[in-house]
Amino acid sequence: ESDTASEISFQFTRHKKTPSIGSHSSDMASVSSVSGSVLSVYSGDFGSVDAQGTVEFALDYDEKNREFQVHVSQCKDLAVVDEKKGRSDPYVKTYLLPDKARMGKRKTSVKKRTVNPIYNEVLRYKIEKMVLLIQKLNLSVWHNDPLGRNSFLGEIEIDLASWDWSNRKLNWYPLKPRSLSAVNGVDHRGVMSLSIKYVPPGSLGKWPKNPPSGEVHIWVKDVKDLLQLRPSGVDSFVKCYVLPDTSKKSYQKTRVIKRDTNPIFNHTIVYDGFHTEDLKDACVELTVWDHEKLTNHFLGGIRLGLGTGLSYGISVDWMDSTQEEVAFWQEMMLAANEWIDGLLPLRSL
User: Fold this and answer.
1) What is the pLDDT of residues 44-82, one digit of tens each?
2) CATH superfamily of 43-182
3) Which of 28-37, 77-86, 205-214, 276-285 is the least confident region?
4) What is the Cα–Cα distance from 40 to 84, expressed in whole angstroms?
5) Who's near 332: CB < 8 A, 6+ residues apart?
6) Domain-by-domain residue ranges, the chain?
7) For the segment 183-225, what is each residue's pLDDT rounded down to a tens digit?
8) Do domains 43-182 and 190-346 have the same CATH topology?
9) What are the φ/ψ torsions at residue 325 (nearest 5 degrees)?
10) What does the record list as GO biological process (predicted)?
């Protein structure tokens, strides 16, 4: 754990295609690197099809194996996505809310050319019962598109705290349209206050003050209005990566602030080895997590970059910064050696 206002420096080694980050510090905690990006686990809602039809499923909790099971049986009378061909290729996807990135999505196989698909598949989550009972199950049906433009066909959301766990039978449920908050992207997860600065190589005079290469400074100040996942509050910390590197060498985190939905971190991280052209291809990913003994719960995050969808000429899904995040990053690029202050909403998408 790092101290308040501590400063950790890492080396950003530039390569044309696969940049990596090496560390000047040997004190980093031993943690598993993120596989891919925690903010990129969602399918885009590109469809304009009206939700219709029903889905048959059952819920169960296996006490022995500590496993939540969703038995997805079948769907009936789904909407037709491709009207010319009269077809839909549906699959079922589930999340546990509000913490869908932590547990990840589960989904069935795709059934082609049918609006009455039969699955008979079990989607499984390894999760403690106490944690499960403060979640909601979001079960949605989607049309699978070869180009990735999947269409939303309907959903149902179940509060697991009030679920009758003695009911293990398959039951039919009507599929509903997306809620207004989901359609408009309203998903309030808190707001992060931070400052960033870029120090170009050769800009501070002679060495040792002058870095041999550029530096990106990230000052995480505080977060307000975090999601509270349990009555005792939230024990939060912030993770940082410079994508495309998600290795241990890129990873840094703040200390944990306990029982506070408005934590003050006051933590600064410095990544060096940046050339000015790297700023177009790299992305600073800051994610906020609730700390628990068994597992950490994802609360929300931001991505600072140009949001071009490309990194060193390669198409990547994590280069998806919002307009606010892009503007913040651009302002830093244009104002060398100056701290740029920002107040950015945390997001799940």
Assistant:
1) 444 558 889 999 999 999 999 999 999 999 999 999 987
2) C2 domain (2.60.40.150)
3) 28-37
4) 32
5) 196, 197, 198, 340
6) 43-182, 190-346
7) 444 456 889 999 999 999 877 655 555 667 789 999 999 998 8
8) yes
9) -65, -40
10) exocytosis
Omega within 30 of 0 (cis) for the link into 98? yes
Helix/strand/coil (H, E, C) string of 92-140? Answer: EEEEEECCHHHHCCEECCCCCCCCCCEEEEEEEEECCHHHHCCCEEEEE
- Give 131-136's long-range contacts (Cβ < 8 A, gap of 24+): 132/61, 132/68, 132/96, 132/160, 133/160, 133/161, 134/161, 134/229, 134/230, 135/96, 135/97, 135/98, 135/99, 135/160, 136/96, 136/97, 136/98, 136/160
**Both tokens of residue 24?**
């000047």
Model-level pTM greater than 0.85?
Answer: no
Residues making up the chain, counted from first to last: 349
* Structure tokens that stand for 145 in this block: 């598109």
